[in-house]
Amino acid sequence: MRPITEEKFESILNFLEEKKIDVLMITDYEDSRNVNLQYLSGHPTDATILINSSGETILIPWDVPLAEKHSEVDEIINPANFSFNPTLAIKDLFENRWKKSSITIGVHSKTTYGLIVKMKAIITGIKYFEEPIQITQYFEKLRSTKTEFEIKKLLKAAKIGNKIIDDIKDFCINNPDGTEKDLSLLVRKKIGDNVGSDVAFEPLVANSSRAHEIHQHPFASDQRFSLPGLALIDFGAKFQGYNSDITIPISFGKLSDEQNKMREFTIKSYETAIEMIEIDVPLWKIHDTAEQILKKGGYLMPYSLGHGLGLTVHDSPLLSRKPTD
């Protein structure tokens, strides 16, 4: 089943008409992943989807049986009939079925330049819509509101992640010599024990010597996790393509006055931000308020306050500073 609703799909056709785009092409392969493939078709990976201005959806998958199981499209084209070259399949569509002397293709900004050049060399009469960033931004906005279908999957991903919090607590209490890697492996196993789930991203595990880093490198080390001070773990569960994202701060031993102050200002900033979330409240104002609270304590926040969740871990919308462009 594809996540997109009929209403949103119809808005895509209106967008294509407005921009004078004959065919929208979304590709997802190892060199350039694009979750909009799954959003538009239900097919999880490794394929090209074409949507023409009449609303016809055509999928060219690497794995045809997988596409037959998961996709919801008008037609699946087997690339084996075109020497396993999707570009040749597209050429056949353009030249023998749609038969237009000139076709304008709209592509996502993630589409590789190599593919664009290859298609222009093989297919005569094609032009590209010259503002691919508009297509990217359009899909970000489209996916920023979730359907009931998507919300159910997000809730399931969140529940899987939340169940593991007790396992993390037990590890911290009963495994004083456990390493960051030990905790990372535990979280990965617990998530994998749930049918249809996987980690949303590589867990970030940091003891008190590394917890100040914005994104840890390596993700988890061989160091003991329970060093005195402030530690954290940042992890998420993926359920049928939809992601959760959970950060847990953890205290070991008696905290210093400065560490207690950091903890208090963080909690105040967090709780104030939660209370501000309301319809028509600009997200940048929530970010700004949280940041100002931390600044009063003498601290900086060199990152965005938060983000949406969906087929990517960082889906729109973004809770960040006020846009300046």
From TrEMBL:
Positions of the Peptidase M24 domain: 153-321
One Pfam family cited in the UniProt record for this chain: Creatinase_N
Domain Creatinase N-terminal span(s) in chain numbering: 11-143
InterPro entries cross-referenced by the UniProt entry: Creatin/AminoP/Spt16_N (IPR029149), Creatinase/aminopeptidase-like (IPR036005), Creatinase_N (IPR000587), Pept_M24 (IPR000994), Peptidase_M24B (IPR050659)
Classification via Gene3D superfamilies: Creatinase/methionine aminopeptidase superfamily, Creatinase/prolidase N-terminal domain
Protein name: Peptidase M24 domain-containing protein
Organism: marine sediment metagenome
Source organism phylogeny: unclassified sequences, metagenomes, ecological metagenomes
